[in-house]
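Milestone M4 deliverable, item 7.
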Amino acid sequence: MALIQQQQMTEANLEAHRRNGRKSRGAATPEGKERSRAANLRHGFYSKIRDEALTALGEDPADLAGLIEGAHEQFRPANTYQAWIVEHMARLQWRIQRAGRQQESLASEHVARIEQTRREKALELRIHYVDMLDFLQMLLDDAGRPDFYAPPGYFRRLSETFARQGTRPPEDIPLLLHRLRKPKNFPPAGPLPATATADDEWAEQVADMEPDNFPIPQPHLPVAEGVERDELREELREAVEQELTTFNAGWEPTLKKNAKPLSTAQRDELAADVNPQIELMRRQEDSCFRQFWRLGNYLMKIQEAEKREPEKQYSEARSQESEEQDRGFRIQGSKDQGSGADGQAVEAEVRKNEGASGYVQENTGNGKSDLTTDCAVSTADAEFQPAWPVPAAKNIVAQKPALR
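Output delivered:
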């Protein structure tokens, strides 16, 4: 589905467009060119200018650019590859926000449609209520006149008014109206009650209802004459008053219920009605969040590994240098304590045991592993004679100096 709704074209429209197209040179203003370029935009997934898709969806490309810039400040990518990861994470965050906005939009639009339907229904009920109320009140006032009779238009109003309510009138009201049709001899005119319809209004109603060609439902019922009409008019008034009381008692709660605003619980229930669409948006949001988390974790591991690499190289270099110095001291000590065959044997023994452990005295080849190995006496220390016996020189290796 196109993001920009296209006009439905007819053959006449197409022909007119062809004629005008031969005269036109295309869009001239920047706004017209931008709209012309985005006229056939459908999703923008493959668009080289991604701002088109954002604009068509009602989003601001500057907000996305600010989000990407903030992601660069937060993660500080060290190279192009890390920068690509950071930008992709920012776009995933943008999609997460979009999915949340879409969920809210779907729910709010659904609730708004329901509210509009409720308002229309309430207005329709109010119109029907007023229509029924007006008709019953008119009938009550008209029946108060001594010269009242039911013209054909009365039966039409009765039928249509109750039909709009989806109900049928009480049996006594239509029956009384049939008996109170136009008589042959009108009763003598007398003083009108205060609640009766005025003469001018009654004359206007009769002029409007009398020419109506609506068929009388029960024409075989006899028309009342004389004093009987007064009794029937009183019965009609009592029936109409009772119908008014019943009608108001049933309709007032219905009108109040439909006019009452929706509660929070009702709005939540209505929002849940669009669950299939919202569930799809939630799955999209969750998928983007998982990708965002994996990319962020991967980026931090890359940056941590690159941070540790110089330290690791420096540590390996220092360890190798230390091992070479230790090896040099051991070989030099063996040479100082013996020469010839004995010295070569000691040096070979040192090389053989070299690397067995990290402790120097343990690698001398004499089988000792404790910390009580005696120190050799060099010619520089000849004047110092220890009080303890000195073992043979061939089994002694010069100690590594404490400070290098």
